[in-house]
From TrEMBL:
It holds the Pfam family Rgg_C. Residues 15-68 form the HTH cro/C1-type domain. One of its GO terms (molecular function) is DNA binding. It comes from Lactococcus protaetiae. This is HTH cro/C1-type domain-containing protein. InterPro entries: Cro/C1-type_HTH, HTH-type_regulator_Rgg, Lambda_DNA-bd_dom_sf, TPR-like_helical_dom_sf, Transcription_activator_Rgg_C. SUPFAM superfamilies: lambda repressor-like DNA-binding domains. PANTHER family: TRANSCRIPTIONAL REGULATOR, TRANSCRIPTIONAL REGULATOR-RELATED.
Amino acid sequence: MKSGNVEKVLYGEAFKLFRTSKKFTLKEAAGNDTSSANISKFENGISSPSVETFFNIINNINVSAFEFQNLYNQMLNSKDIMLYESELIAAYMSNDKDKVCQFIEKLKMLSLTFESKKYKLDKVQAEAVLAKIDREYKIPEEDILFLKTYLLELEDWGIYDINALTRSDHIFDPVTLSKLTQQMLKANYFNKKLPEIRRAKIQALLNIVNAFVRNKQWELAEKYISYLENMNIEDYYTFEKNILKYNKANYRFHRGDDTALVIMEKCRDVFEYCDCNSYALLMSKEIKELKRVRR
């Protein structure tokens, strides 16, 4: 079966999974936008609805475009390796260098085979993760430049692009990172009202603050801490609010306020209480190192 036919079948299968799991009939899914017969043909890969009809019928079964794309991506995961993002994150959290190297090799092969810009971007991000695990690993300069150029030329930043900066902030020098951060914040956002976009931006800025503290760029660190505070992060973003409090205390400690360690420990305790053990462990290691350096 040709690739296009496979994708058409998967679209229909994804729609059927949603429709049947939500107990909508073919007639209810069709609504006033199409016929039950056309819905059946779509679900069986025989035909596809127009773009307008597609958005109407997923709305008829109470499914957002974001939810549909996510399920479709899961069904198509053999094609898009970065859909294994959770595995990549897990490999980082467990310091599994071999697993990350496997990602890099596979992405390298795919980028060469298909001459794909996306796979090359994915590869650079995987290399950035490896550089966090293995301090001696050096990302090729041409790969850093490739990602930098891509991000600087963006007019609209989506979730993929924001996450790319989040994963790779440590590979850029402070001047470049500041420029990319400004580019991200001033960009046009076609989907700026999406909660996922807002959350991705918050997470990116939290990482960027840490990067500036690490590089002793105090003014930039303070600038983006203030920016985050002015975003009035919602209470239901508890994880992000706790990280912000931790990062702010980390900044204060590096600026000479030893009492800030108490706040950092309380933030770690919150994660331990919530069974976020991987993050709590990373914080414990950082706090231990800060205490050692202060002695």
